[in-house]
Design the sequence.
């Protein structure tokens, strides 16, 4: 078991490239990035900052996928408790409402929430095969909620011909027990894959006002398949399902710890791909529904739905020029008690990928969204990669973006239907130096500005609540800083890795809350023998401002977490492992008044077959 910053290879198949010519034994094509453009590109060719995690490194070696992502540069998180509690990700200082999340091509942002965002709190690595994290504005490719970046998750897929799978069981602190399996079969014409995961935990007390434990249980299911009818025609689809129950402390004012929320998510996507000469056409339909129930709450049900019909064309005009073009139509609904609303959105997009020389790759993307409520929004992105030498690459990107007001911000008792989108401008400049097979170092400067901000305004009267409304508030949010990361093999058995992010995020000169100014990770991976390995890592977070709602005795601020692990290959296909989190039992909070887990140890067995 190792902890790393990135994964260096991808075995690509017809799942990625969409042609029967690739539906054979896997080919090592380097690191293909599926989400940095409208069509897959090699990691060395994209000007966008992206990290790729695969296999066990995509979350199976951590309690949640979010735990893994926070060791990447530019990424931090907040959580309202332990496993299963509400948790959000932040990229370059911009919180979850600015981050898009897709699972097997399905947009899984919650349309019933206050803002459209994804809850990472109970999202474990069960069934996860690959994670791509893009930083910087991606609205020109993905539309709204992509100002900070996009996280693209792919479920487990079989890589070799025939039947294969992986299974894992784990037990540990807080009476936590989990298990998962993934099975699948691949032929020369396609594949089918099924993953299931289950986790149960007695948990910790989410809030600091009582010692009562808040339990969590969850089941997940992923199903995907693809079949090449012939060299020209392919059919495929996927299903994502997650259901769980989480206990929570409802109110510190009344000492009410009786809260319990049940949540159910269902997503599905079907597609067909047709190759006609130099043009590949893909037509897809996706569906996502979330239903959260809080029987004891003021609002007892939160239900949201999204449907999307998409067309994407890719024309390879020459070895130097590729043109992507597409059309999306989506409908989104919310039905949460008195909050009822809907919208539809039509978008057209195009992207030019141009390689003028063997050393330079350019990308120009443009997108126009036409919303049924607030009209049109046009965004663009330019990205460039310049390979100065075989070991040095300079990357640059600039883009505009937007975040549409959520259905809740428009149609709830505190909403204003007249709200307009937030708009953004971001740019970055980075350099990467590789050291052959031994490692790499990266440095990236970033800057983002967001205007037309949407926030709750106690003085606003448009909604008639008497307590304020969501409103377009004056000011500009600016987030700027630097990301550093690297990995280097000190010897055949010892590898050093690390990352550091400096983030200066403010609105009108006032620091953004819950956003670390300094976030650093350093660690070692060691292969003691052919079968015995281990790791240790240290993460230090410093200079964090708590929110205005944090209690006076909150513990939001500097903290240091140490993690360590050992693994032993019982056989060539089975691994026994031990993982310790928060080794020195640091007492800290990422959201004021909400506890974080202390020292925890987990033991597990993972097997491939």
Sequence:
């Amino acid at each position: 078991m190792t902890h790393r910053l990135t994964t260096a290879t991808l075995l690509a198949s017809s799942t990625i490239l969409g042609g029967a010519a690739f539906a054979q034994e896997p080919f090592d094509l380097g690191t293909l990035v599926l989400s940095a453009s409208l069509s897959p590109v090699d990691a060395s060719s994209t000007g966008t900052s992206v990290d790729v995690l695969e296999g066990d490194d995509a979350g199976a070696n951590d309690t949640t996928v979010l735990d893994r992502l926070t060791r990447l540069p530019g990424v931090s998180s907040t959580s309202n408790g332990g496993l299963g509690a509400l948790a959000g990700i932040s990229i370059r200082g911009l919180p979850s409402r600015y981050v898009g999340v897709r699972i097997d091509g399905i947009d899984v942002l919650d349309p019933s929430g206050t803002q459209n965002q994804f809850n990472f709190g109970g999202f474990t690595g069960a069934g996860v095969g690959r994670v791509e994290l893009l930083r910087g504005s991606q609205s020109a490719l993905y539309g709204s909620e992509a100002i900070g970046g996009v996280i693209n998750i792919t479920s487990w897929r079989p890589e070799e011909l025939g039947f294969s799978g992986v299974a894992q069981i784990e037990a540990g602190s807080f009476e936590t027990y989990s298990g998962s399996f993934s099975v699948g079969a691949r032929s020369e014409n396609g594949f089918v894959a099924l993953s299931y995961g289950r986790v149960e935990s007695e948990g910790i007390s989410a809030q600091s006002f009582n010692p009562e434990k808040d339990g969590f249980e969850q089941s997940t299911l992923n199903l995907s398949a693809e079949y090449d009818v012939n060299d020209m025609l392919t059919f495929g689809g996927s299903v994502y399902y997650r259901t769980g129950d989480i206990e929570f402390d409802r109110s510190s004012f009344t000492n009410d710890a009786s809260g319990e929320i049940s949540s159910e998510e269902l997503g599905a996507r079907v597609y067909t791909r047709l190759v006609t000469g130099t043009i590949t056409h893909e037509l897809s339909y996706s569906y996502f529904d979330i239903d959260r129930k809080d029987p004891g709450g003021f609002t007892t049900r939160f239900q949201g739905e999204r449907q999307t019909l998409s067309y994407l064309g890719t024309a390879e005009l020459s070895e130097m020029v590729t043109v992507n073009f597409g059309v999306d139509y989506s409908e989104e609904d919310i039905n949460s008690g008195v909050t009822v609303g809907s919208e539809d959105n039509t978008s057209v997009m195009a992207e030019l990928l141009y390689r003028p020389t063997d050393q330079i790759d350019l990308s120009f993307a443009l997108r126009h969204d036409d919303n049924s409520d607030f009209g049109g929004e046009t965004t663009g992105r330019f990205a460039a990669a310049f390979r100065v030498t075989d070991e040095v690459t300079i990357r640059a990107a600039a883009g505009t973006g937007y975040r549409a007001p959520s259905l809740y911000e428009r149609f709830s008792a505190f909403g204003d239907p007249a709200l307009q989108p937030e708009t953004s401008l971001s740019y970055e400049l980075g350099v990467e130096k590789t050291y052959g097979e031994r490692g790499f170092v990266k440095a990236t400067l970033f800057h983002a500005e967001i205007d037309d901000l949407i926030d709750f305004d106690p003085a606003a009267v448009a909604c008639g609540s008497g307590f304020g409304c969501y409103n377009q508030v004056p000011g500009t949010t600016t987030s700027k800083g630097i990301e550093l990361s690297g990995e280097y093999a000190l010897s055949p058995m010892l590898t050093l890795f690390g990352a550091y992010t400096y983030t200066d995020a403010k609105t009108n000169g006032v620091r953004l809350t819950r956003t670390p100014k300094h976030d650093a990770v350093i660690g070692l991976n060691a292969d003691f023998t052919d079968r015995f390995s281990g790791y240790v890592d240290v993460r230090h977070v410093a200079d964090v401002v708590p929110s205005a709602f944090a209690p006076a005795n909150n513990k939001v601020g500097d903290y240091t977490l140490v993690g360590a692990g050992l693994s032993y290959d019982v056989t060539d296909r089975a691994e026994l492992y031990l993982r310790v989190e928060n080794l020195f039992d640091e007492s800290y909070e990422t959201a004021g008044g909400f506890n974080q887990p202390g020292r925890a140890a987990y033991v597990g067995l993972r097997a491939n077959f």
About this structure: The longest strand covers residues 339-357. The CA atoms of residues 308 and 330 lie 4 Å apart. The chain has a mean pLDDT of 93.
